[in-house]
Task: structure prediction
Amino acid sequence: MTAADVIRIKELLPTSLGSEEIREQIAREILQRSIFSARMESARYLAKVREVCAQIAAGEINQADARLKLVTLLEQMGHSPQDGGGIINPASMRRLNLVVDTQRQMAASVAMLSEQTEATVFMWPAWELTRVEARARPRLDWDRRWAAAGLACNFEGALKDRLIALKTSPIWQHLGNGAGGYKDALDNPYPPFAFSSGMGWVEVDRDKCIALGLVREDDEISAPSLASLTPGERDIAEAVERYGFPRIAEGIA
Result:
């Protein structure tokens, strides 16, 4: 499953709710399999978001091209980058980047998870949370977020002094839940763990995990099965398998 496949099969979720209301009132499983944006009730616009994000993920267009396509449609709908309002304005540069980046990053993470096998998890048992994209004003609280998420699961399968944990550790879901009271979290057990975050995963190999005390030489760690996925992730995986997107992705418009 590619990131473009993940995006293409997502459903549209028009809503008049704001970001915090969406998180409080709509089930996480629905959000994971949907394209949505705070206070955006136009299915036509969300369909365009899905289209351009899939094109970015497939390497067909860049982010500037995607923004231009979205702004063109938004202007037809009566919105303008000149309207002001900052991130509340759907046509603002900041809002457009937020929408595109979030969908792109989430799809890349789900695609990465879908590729996990018994062999890959054995050889690379853990993830390290690290900066993978630059930000003009990066968050400086990731150590505190990690500590809060770790306390929520007693650091099961996770280090206290480094942002490294087994791929099977519950710390990832707690980090995504915003453990510690962080309101910008996205409720996903995979990056991005917060809106506009440039933090992502890199794999940690078995030798390093043994040296860090996360696994023993005779430990076997199983890859997550389809049954262990959330309903939203499972729907995506099953749809990709059913429709054969990995085999025909190049032919999807």
